[in-house]
Structure formats: structure tokens, C-alpha cells
Design brief:
elongated; about 50% helix; Zn2-C6_fun-type_DNA-bd_sf; about 475 residues; disordered N terminus; mainly alpha; about 0% strand
Length: about 475
């Protein structure tokens, strides 16, 4: 089994060279017998933990104060490892690093705890859209989800697998997680999840819902590397629709009591306004499907999917934001079952709509690293399947593959070469002020106060 050889080597008892140290008068018996300094960790010191020995203290000792919560991302990722320069990559995702777990639950080893620490440090942000007021889920992801994971091993397996995948995506070599270990953890996560679904224990429904969400990120390995396969998006959509089916089983009151309801929040869509934002050629594609065509019974499902696609165009007009990311991520959950069946049957109309959705997936918003390269893999797969005769309807998705700049992709989607919307509140305030300042001397103060950037005690200028 991949990863077994690495895990078993952790059982080897390390040799520590004796070196000068200050006496520890409250250390454990094992450290005293070896005459080595004990770090007095509770419930077991680090030396006994590594050597897998029972740690016993002779007298009650005052616990050591917890480390400062402002430890930076360059701190050591696990006991016994020196900090590596590649851990600086983690700093782009989190400002602070919490203290690592001090205990190992039954059935879990040191590598598991290292991966859990990385999840609470960095990987949880992979599903964070804290810029959306209705969905401030950071605490839910770091606290509630982990609580459910300790009670439901299949969710813990999914968290560890996602962390292993994230570590290798970032290239954090000092965490000591190999590619084979990543594959091992991922296979275990899917296996235990399937067993939990088959058992259908009502007590696990909340954990199953969270696990379904995390698996949508974990399963994106099918779009990259040696494991990639054409049109993997057709299977990926099934995972997203599974989230809605689990919600129907749980019922909303129980979902809110579980403390994880914010994870499945979907912003409302103004479908009438969305319809006005759709490209005319996509609507013409539907109008050209006549009675007798094999796709004619699917026109209504196609139109429903296009309306929700239009909500992405409508949101994009306001700028590239966390709300746009949330609409992109939740789009598959909006698709009617008839549309998904048509896509899985590889009906041309459904594939064309999916190709345009994949253009939005190109946007680099937030920390959804698991969306990376999906479009580059799937848009050519759709084009190759449909053939050159569909090139006219696939012109925009194919053109998007040549663009690396979010602004250029937005201009292509909106067919507006002058589009240049800001992406942050600060930039919005600055640009709005610059537009009005020529006609209104007080415009700068008005706009900066509107965005909360003006201090009335400092005369004349924004802070």
C-alpha cells in the first residue's frame, strides 16, 4: 500500500546525542532515566511520543504556557523537523499559524497529526469565502468541521487527504508528504466515504455533507497530471449534485443546529436580469433546435442552465470578487438533473454550455487552488469530442485558453474591450473618487467616507 513504508519508519527509535542542557526537575521518568532533557509536554513529552513509550511523570508539574498565537508560517511544521524555506509559501494563505496538536487520537499517527495541523493552518482556506458577509465560514471550517471529523473517521480521512494534496500542490517539501502518500490518503478517503454513504447512519449526515463538499476539491486530481482523464467534469458534477441530495435528507433545521449551514450557502440569483446578460449566440443555439431534433426535449433544461450561467455574467460586470467565486463554485449545484443526464450522455448543447462555464473557472479568485488547470484540461476535451463543426459556438472558450490575465478573460466573456473593473473595496473608492473629483471638489471626501476610508479628524485627505 502506498505510504506504508514511510509510516512504518516513523516507529524506529531515534538516537539523540547527549549535549549540555539545564536540568529538568519535573520531567518524565523515561527522560530522567536516560538523563536527557524532557520538554514536559502533556499528556506525553515529545521524546516518549516519538519513541512510542508510555510517558509517566513522578510529580504534578505546572503546564508550560501555550506558545504565542502569532507564530509565523515559518515555524517548524512538526516536531523534530527544521523549518524549510518553502514553508514561506504557506504565508500567502494565512497570517498566523496556530499551535500544532499536542495529542494523537486513537488510530492516528504523527503524519496524520501533521496533516491535520496543516489543514487548520492553511488548507481550510481552500473553501473559504470570508469576503461574503453571509458566508463567513473560517471558524466553521477550522472548528466545527474538525469537531465532526474527530467523531466521524471518514471525514477525518478526507481532511488529511486534502491537506496532503494541498501540500504537494504548494511544493512544501519540509512537510515530508510524498506523492505516493497523497494517493494513499486520497484512496482511503474515497473508500471510507463510500462505506459511510452505504451505511446511511442518520448520525453521520452532517459529516457526510461536509465530506461531500471537501471531496469536490479532492477529486480535482482527475483534471491534472498522470491521473487526468478527458471529460472528467461529467463525473465531477455528480459530486456537486450529491451535496443537494444530502441537504434534502438532513432537513434545514437539523442543518442549522449542526453549525455547518454556512458551508452550503448559495447566493440568490436574479434570473430575469441574468437572462439579459447571456451572449446572443448561446440563446440562438437553443432557438435553432427544432422539433424532431434529439435535443429538442432538452431545450427547457438547457435554458435553465443558461439562466444560472447568466448570473455569472451579471456578477462579473460588478468585478472579480469573492461573490463571483462563490457563484462559480456553486453553479453545478444549480443544474437540473435533466441537464446533468444530457451532459453525461455527451449531448452537444450541454457540452457547449459547460465549455462556457469553464471559462469562468479560469478566474484566479481567493485561495481555491483546487480549481487550477481544470479549464485548460476540459475545454480542449470538449472541443476534441464535438469536432470542428462546433468551432463557432466554442470560439470564446477556445480563445480563453490563450489568455492568462483575469481582466482579458473578463473582456472576452463580456465582449467589452474597455472593461476594467476593480477587485477590491480600496480600489473601488480610489477609482470612484478620481472619476468625480474634476467636477466636485468634495467628491474625494464623499467617496472615501462612503467606503470607510476617511477619518474626519484628519482634514482634507483619505487615510
Amino acid at each position: 500500500m502506498p505510504g506504508v513504508s514511510v509510516i512504518t519508519t516513523a516507529a524506529e527509535k531515534p538516537y539523540y546525542a547527549k549535549r549540555p542542557h539545564r536540568k529538568s526537575r519535573t520531567g518524565c521518568r523515561n527522560c530522567k532515566a536516560r538523563k536527557v532533557k524532557c520538554d514536559e509536554g502533556r499528556p506525553a513529552c515529545r521524546t516518549c511520543t516519538v519513541r512510542k513509550e508510555k510517558c509517566v511523570y513522578t510529580v504534578a508539574a505546572t503546564p508550560k504556557p501555550a506558545s504565542s498565537p502569532t507564530t509565523t508560517a515559518s515555524s517548524s511544521p512538526s516536531p523534530g523537523n527544521e523549518p524549510g524555506p518553502d514553508l514561506a509559501l504557506v504565508a500567502t494563505h494565512v497570517a498566523t499559524v496556530p499551535q500544532q496538536p499536542l495529542f494523537k487520537p486513537s488510530g492516528r499517527d504523527e503524519i496524520d497529526m501533521r496533516l491535520l495541523w496543516f489543514y487548520t493552518t492553511a488548507t481550510y482556506t481552500s473553501f473559504s469565502t470570508s469576503g461574503v458577509k453571509e458566508r463567513d465560514v473560517d471558524v466553521v471550517l477550522k472548528v466545527n468541521v474538525v469537531q465532526h471529523a474527530f467523531a466521524n473517521p471518514f471525514l477525518m480521512d478526507c481532511i488529511l487527504a486534502l491537506s496532503a494534496m494541498h501540500i504537494n500542490w504548494l511544493g512544501v517539501r519540509s512537510m515530508g508528504i510524498s506523492r505516493s502518500q497523497e494517493i494513499y490518503y486520497r484512496a482511503k478517503a474515497f473508500e471510507t466515504y463510500r462505506k459511510a454513504v452505504a451505511a446511511a447512519d442518520p448520525a453521520t449526515y452532517q459529516a457526510l455533507l461536509v465530506c461531500s463538499l471537501l471531496l469536490c476539491g479532492l477529486s480535482t486530481h482527475l483534471f491534472r497530471g498522470d491521473e487526468a482523464k478527458p471529460l472528467a467534469i461529467l463525473d465531477w458534477m455528480i459530486l456537486w449534485k450529491g451535496i443537494g441530495q444530502i441537504i434534502e435528507v438532513i432537513k434545514l433545521p437539523a442543518l442549522f443546529r449542526s453549525g455547518i449551514a454556512a458551508l452550503v450557502f448559495r447566493p440568490d440569483a436574479d434570473l430575469n436580469a441574468s437572462a439579459q446578460c447571456l451572449p446572443a449566440y448561446l440563446l440562438f443555439m437553443l432557438a435553432s433546435i427544432r422539433e424532431g431534433d434529439p435535443e429538442y426535449p432538452l431545450v427547457q433544461a438547457y435554458y435553465c442552465a443558461l439562466l444560472y450561467l447568466g448570473s455569472l455574467y451579471l456578477e462579473l460586470k460588478n468585478g472579480i470578487s469573492q461573490l463571483l467565486l462563490l457563484r462559480i463554485v456553486t453553479f453545478p449545484t444549480r443544474l437540473p438533473n435533466t441537464f446533468i443526464d444530457a451532459a453525461r450522455a455527451k449531448r452537444p448543447g450541454a457540452l457547449v454550455i459547460l465549455a462556457h462555464y469553464l471559462v469562468f473557472v479560469k478566474f484566479r479568485v481567493g485561495s481555491c487552488w483546487w480549481l487550477d488547470n481544470i479549464s485548460a484540461h476540459e475545454i480542449p476535451s470538449i472541443y476534441n469530442f464535438l469536432g470542428p463543426e462546433w468551432e463557432r459556438l466554442l470560439h470564446v472558450p477556445m480563445a480563453a485558453l490563450q489568455l492568462d490575465n483575469d481582466r482579458d478573460v473578463a473582456r472576452l466573456l463580456l465582449d467589452d474591450s474597455s472593461w476594467d473593473k476593480p477587485t477590491s473595496t480600496v480600489e473601488l473608492a480610489i477609482r470612484a473618487a478620481m472619476e468625480d473629483i474634476a467636477n466636485d471638489p468634495e467628491a474625494l471626501k464623499k467617496k472615501t467616507m462612503e467606503y470607510g476610508l476617511f477619518d474626519p479628524h484628519i482634514a482634507g485627505s483619505p487615510v
